[in-house]
Specification:
- With 409 residues, this protein is α/β, with parallel strands linked by helices.
- It has 3 domains: 117 residues; 140 residues; 80 residues.
- Helix content is 71%, strand content 11%.
- It has a 6-stranded mixed sheet, sandwiched between helices.
- Helix 1 runs antiparallel to helix 3.
- It starts with a strand and ends with a helix.
- About 2% of the residues have low confidence.
Length: 409
């Protein structure tokens, strides 16, 4: 069936193939007859006008033509011949015009038929494509629905077999896997490691740090929280804010992020990245699907201040170097003053020691001089010593010496 709109009333109606062919024949025959009748009427009108003109000229000049009958007959014959030729030309033109009109209409009808055929073919093709796409979408949605149902069943079974500790560890492993998948492309110079430092009594789950040319420009303390659906005592996200802020400060991190599956029905936490800095500074709560986006968001924001941090680090290093120089200078002055004091004391002790040594040497000199005198005196006495003198008061000894002398002689 085809829809056809009436050009006069604008009403649309449907016709079948036979009706459509009959309409085409009617349009073609009626148009042809109308055009032929128009050309015949036009030719007839033109002939009537020409005959009226001829009659008028004949009546006006009847007397003149009568006197010149032969010439007029000749002229009339020529006129008749011209009229015949004109009639033949008009008839030829009429036939040509009719032929051209018929051919033009036939072309238009043929083009219209071809266009309708093409439109019908395109419509059928579009219907088949729509049907095929619809079937494909139905099959695709059925497959996706089946996969989701299987995933839900798998997760339910997985949760049923997990302990509370394993539930938390599975979320940590999920975040670690997500980060490792893009580590080398998005964060080649960053570190994302477990927080194993519990010297302060507590620790977070992960710490993200990134530096540029030795200047750390972003650091994030992460805490992952999850619990089983069957857990009787349900925790809230805000139960972990205080401990997370403590870990952030103790580990010198700039930001704190809680990656949480708690309060799954709370739309406040389900809408995306939640800023809770009104409770604790630079703290955010996100669902696992926003784990990578929160890192990218904070990192890109920190990159804007990297240049200022590098300049600040240079200034701080210069201040530290100046402070170290001043400390070294003060230490040098203190050591120099102490050493100078010690050297002064030792110098004074040395002077006093030298003075004492001089006095001792002078005393020794005096003793030596005294000893010299005693030795001189003693030497003189030794020179005066003789056996006779020594045995003056020991006659027996003197006698013994005399007897020894005699024996030797």
């Amino acid at each position: 069936m085809q829809e056809i709109k009436c050009p006069n009333c604008g009403k649309t109606f449907q016709v079948d193939e036979a009706g459509y062919a009959q309409i085409l024949r009617q349009v073609r025959d009626e148009e042809f007859n109308r055009e032929r009748q128009r050309l015949q009427d036009e030719f007839k009108s033109r002939n009537e006008k020409d005959l009226a003109i001829v009659r008028m000229h004949q009546e006006k000049s009847y007397e003149e033509k009568l006197s010149k009958k032969e010439s007029l007959i000749s002229e009339k014959e020529g006129e008749i011949e011209r009229l015949k030729a004109k009639l033949e030309v008009a008839d030829t033109e009429k036939k040509l015009a009719v032929s051209e009109a018929v051919q033009g209409k036939d072309r238009e009808l043929s083009e219209l038929g071809s266009e309708l055929t093409k439109l019908r073919s395109d419509l059928e093709l579009q219907k088949r494509e729509n049907k095929l796409n619809e079937n494909n979408l139905i099959e695709q949605h059925k497959g996706e629905l089946k996969l989701r149902e299987e995933e839900i069943e798998r997760l339910k079974d997985f949760k049923a077999r997990l302990s509370t500790k394993m539930v938390g560890e599975s979320l940590e492993q999920h975040c670690m896997n997500q980060f490792n998948q893009i580590r080398m492309t998005a964060f080649p110079n960053a570190s994302f490691e477990k927080d194993n430092d519990d010297r302060t009594g507590s620790k977070g789950d992960f710490i993200f740090r990134e530096s540029s040319e030795g200047t750390e420009f972003i650091s994030i303390m992460f805490e992952m929280k999850n619990e089983m659906d069957e857990t009787k005592t349900k925790h809230k996200n805000e139960d972990f804010f205080k401990e997370l802020d403590k870990d952030r400060n103790e580990k010198n991190c700039e930001y704190a992020v809680l990656v949480s599956l708690l309060e799954s029905d709370n739309e406040y936490y389900n809408n995306g990245i939640v800023d809770v800095s009104y409770r604790y500074p630079k703290m955010f709560v996100v669902r696992p699907q926003f784990f990578i986006p929160i890192i990218s968001l904070l990192r890109n924001a920190a990159l804007g201040s990297l240049e200022y941090k590098q300049k600040l680090a240079i200034v701080q290093n210069q201040e530290v170097e100046l402070s170290n120089f001043e400390s070294e200078l003060a230490l040098f002055k203190s050591e120099f003053a102490r050493n100078f004091g010690l050297a002064t004391d030792r110098y004074q002790d040395a002077i006093e020691g030298i003075d004492k040594a001089i006095k001792n040497l002078e005393a020794i000199k005096k003793n030596l001089e005294t000893s010299q005198k005693h030795l001189t005196t003693t030497n003189k006495k030794v020179d005066d010593v003789s056996i006779k003198r020594l045995t003056k008061n020991a006659p027996s000894v003197r006698a013994m010496f005399e007897e020894i002398r005699k024996d030797s002689d």
